[in-house]
From TrEMBL:
Taxonomic path: Bacteria, Pseudomonadati, Pseudomonadota, Alphaproteobacteria, Sphingomonadales
Organism of provenance: Edaphosphingomonas laterariae
Protein name: Uncharacterized protein
Superkingdom of origin organism: Bacteria
Length: 154
């Protein structure tokens, strides 16, 4: 599925990406800067530049803590969403595996233009009802429409 209703906000340089990643971790990124694009850029930066952070394991707590630090709530209706986060970590890893060793802005901006960088990418694998369920928000749920691709398939 491709979201044609939204032009992605691209990143000018590596410093802009690093600012988002470091701001997420430090919980200093302004809330209005925590966009879909920022989520993907921060994840790509973490995968590429922070081998001390295991995204699948560590991003849930990092994002939930960030949300609370900027006045958000993580509950059954808003804030951190486990299944969407894990899907997009997979999307980032797929894109990075395909894209090779390009510089970070090229990788991130390419991801934002790629199918797996689109906001609705998980809906190719999940029904809307399942993806936006409380169970999917609170924990990982397997897709009900199609299996998610793996890095080995990329």
């Amino acid at each position: 599925m491709t979201n044609t209703q939204h032009e992605p906000r691209l990143f000018a340089d590596e410093a802009a990406i690093r600012r988002v990643g470091e701001g997420l971790i430090a919980r200093t990124l302004p809330r209005e800067d925590w966009t879909h694009e920022a989520h993907l850029a921060a994840c790509a930066w973490i995968v590429r530049m922070r081998p001390d952070i295991a995204p699948e394991r560590d991003l849930p707590a990092i994002i939930a803590a960030y949300n609370e630090a900027v006045g958000g709530v993580n509950d059954d209706a808003q804030g951190y969403h486990e299944t969407i986060t894990q899907c997009f970590i997979r999307a980032v890893r797929l894109h990075l595996a395909r894209a090779g060793q390009a510089d970070l802005p090229t990788l991130v901006n390419g991801l934002l233009a790629a199918p797996e960088g689109q906001r609705d990418w998980p809906l190719g694998f999940y029904s809307r009802a399942l993806l936006f369920s409380v169970a999917a928000r609170r924990g990982w749920v397997e897709p009900d429409l199609a299996p998610l691709p793996t890095v080995m398939e990329a």
